[in-house]
Amino acid sequence: MFQHAIFKIDEHHVGLEVNTVYKEYRYPVEMLACGQKYDGIETTLNKPHGKKIIMEFVINLLLKGPKQYKPFVNQILQRYTWLELNDVLEILLLDGVIQIIFKNQNPRKMVNWLPKTIQLDPRAMGNLLGNSPDYKLELSKLKDTVVRLVTGSQSSIRKNLLRWVEEEEIKNQSGTVVVDCKSFKKYKSILLTVAYYIHLKETGRKLPLRYISNQVWNKPKLLSLYKNDSALLAGIPLNELESVLLPDINSSLYAPLILISPVEKLQKLITELSDILESDIKKPELLICLNKTDYCTQNILEIIADDNSVTDNYLKLYDVLKNDLVEGNYRKARLTIINDLEPSIKVLKKQLLKIERMRQQFELIALEEIGSGSFARVYKVFDPEYKKIVACKVLFPRSHFKQVYGNDGDEYIIRFKREVKLLNEKLQHNNIVEVEKLQLEGAPFWFTMPLASYSLEKWVKENGGASEEQRIQIFKQIISGVKYLHEENRYHRDLAPNNILLYDMDNGPVVKIADFGLAKDPESMSFFTGLSKRGYGQENFTDPEQLNNLAKSTNLSDIYSLGALLYYLLSGKLPKKRKYVPVTYQNVVMRAMDTRKNRYQTICEFENDFNKYLKQTGELRHIT
Ligand SMILES: Nc1ncnc2c1ncn2[C@@H]1O[C@H](COP(=O)(O)OP(=O)(O)OP(=O)(O)O)[C@@H](O)[C@H]1O
Fold first, then answer.
1. pLDDT of amino acid 411
2. Which of 359, 454, 514, 571 could be 459's S-S partner, Cβ–Cβ 3.0 to 4.6 Å?
3. Statement: residue 57 has pLDDT above 70
4. CA atoms 197, 200, 206, 210: torsion sign
5. What separation in angstroms does the CA of 312 have from each of 40, 393, 425?
6. Residues 215, 225: contact at Cβ < 8 Å?
7. Is the confidence at residue 464, as pLDDT, over 80?
8. Looking at per-residue confidence, does 324 or 352 come out higher?
């Protein structure tokens, strides 16, 4: 009966002293319960005795709870030994399936908590009370899969792998058993990681380890946990394993910043240059080649984190050489080439090889950070699959939300997923940004989109001299995107200069509206409307009513933002209250930003009025 309910034990059931404030970091750091002091769950779980304490604590809380908990707790106690129970509960606690919820007193500053409820997610019931797996069957299925994956492979690792399958245990190089099939999770993970490695290598394919982990365990990170063990036991160098089973994007976020596009070009030029150097040097050829190589090296230098200054040295040498060649000091130039340039080119070649290897190893390679908002960071990244540079928005990790907002970040995960799904599945318009790749199976959550040339904010700052016509061309496209949204019965609710992206095209910039994290489908009950009372939006561009309460946002909120954006585009100034400078379409701006009653009531009304003034101004200009 309670399979489908979330169990809740309210304040009076928790056994914690209700009026005591407990300090908490990720999980309670210090917790005084029933007269006993407990450390944070995470820390506690790391110590065997602590684990027992915390598990007893959870069970006790459950037992002291409402009546319906008792059969459940009794069943799990009968079914599992303490050791097994610890494992199960540990996973459930760390995954947040069993949650001890505390009332957050001061979410933004100190993290002080009052215990409020302990609750059990229905998944916990499934995990704990579901039929216990038939391990014999599981093991035989695993063996079949491993054998199937490596059939026909000539890999030397295959022999070891098949021995591990046959002996039902994994031994290290010195013959010691490291894991056997009784630790089924680890055993299965290692076998499959190695088997997939062999299989993919054989077929010349690469896959993110996360995808496979999800297929095997329905958990995107589980295989990563055993990645090092798998590599070590099978004798595969870790970076070799990672060149086939690609790591997550976040592990590449700290990789050297590498712009990939000139790599092939540079490689070709360096080969050409080396050939010329080895043969009879002809001055004009060498000059052309040096010029081209110099251009690419400049590019590389700009973005490569070149600690050894190899490229830098090369460029300095290049300058000396070029001077000598141009000034006809040919003998000196030849000496420079032989003494300095040749070894320098060799080092450069090595660097390029490193870059080449690197770019094969990641799903995406972060090149630089573009900026961050309240819940995500945007990076310029290289996508090795499509060989192009795109933008990637990565949701902050839970620990960030914990630190900054004092919560687990569920709200932001939902918001992020909703943004991506909305953009990917529902919205299609030339003035709305499109999603290319996405990763929503587990943290880190991210999606890629075309890289914009600028945000509107940057464009306005850098294009002070742009004509009014250019500005109006941009604004018309913003209206077109918002109109489409409203026709689709959605509101953006966060229209602001950093969310309007501009893409340089031959016929002028193309606008794409981005950042749909706050977008609302008016027919759905918004999660945020229900739970969050925090104000949303960027102050100068947001309808004042929405700033205090997101629930109050309607299509009129977007119309307010359009007025503010028009003012910003025309004046280059932020629309701060009572500090307006006169602009051409003053009437439109003022009416769009007026009180809700006096505002344009629909986007069409706004557009028609704007077009009317546009025509009048045009005619007036024509006459004068
Ligand atoms: N596709 C893109 N190309 C280039 N820059 C982008 C792209 N998408 C976003 N940006 C820039 O990245 C920065 C961060 O964007 P993000 O959407 O995370 O936050 P925000 O809009 O600044 O704030 P918030 O989400 O809190 O409203 C912004 O300056 C934005 O202009």
1. 77
2. 454
3. no
4. negative
5. 50, 32, 46
6. no
7. yes
8. 324
**Alpha-helical segments (H) within 550-594:** 555-571, 586-592
Tokens in use for 535?
């104000």
For the segment 336-347, the average pLDDT, to the nearest whole number, is 74
363 in contact with ligand 1, CB cutoff 6 A: no
Please give the model's pTM, rounded to 2 decimal places. Answer: 0.58
Report whether residue 419 contacts ligand 1, using a CB cutoff of 6 Å.
no
Query: ipTM score here?
Result: 0.97
What would be the CATH architecture of the domain defined by 2-128? Answer: Orthogonal Bundle (1.10)
Q: How far, in Å, CA of 511 to CA of 514, rounded?
A: 10
The topology under which CATH files domain 454-623 is: Transferase(Phosphotransferase); domain 1 (1.10.510)
Q: What is the mean pLDDT of residues 353-357?
A: 68
pLDDT digits (tens, 9 = 90+) for 147-194: 999 999 988 999 999 999 999 999 988 888 888 887 788 899 999 999
| Lowest-confidence region among 53-57, 192-196, 409-413, 469-473 | 53-57
Q: Is residue 545 within 8 Å of 552, Cβ to Cβ? A: yes
Q: Nearest 5°: phi and psi at 347?
A: -65, -40
Q: What is the mean pLDDT of residues 2-30?
A: 36
Cβ of 255 less than 6 Å from ligand 1: no
Query: CB of 366 within 8 A of CB of 392?
Result: yes
- For residue 215, the surrounding DSSP H or E stretch is helix 209-217
Closest residue by Cα to atom 25, ligand 1, is: 373
Structure tokens at 391: 């933008």
Task: Write the class of the CATH domain 365-450.
Answer: alpha beta
User: Which two structure tokens, joined as six digits, stand for 405?
Assistant: 């907002």
- Please name the residue whose Cα sits nearest to atom 5 of ligand 1: 452
Tokens representing residue 433 in the block? 């940004």
ω into 384 cis (within 30 of 0): no
Amino acid occupying residue 332: K
Domain boundaries, the chain: 2-128, 135-247, 261-359, 365-450, 454-623
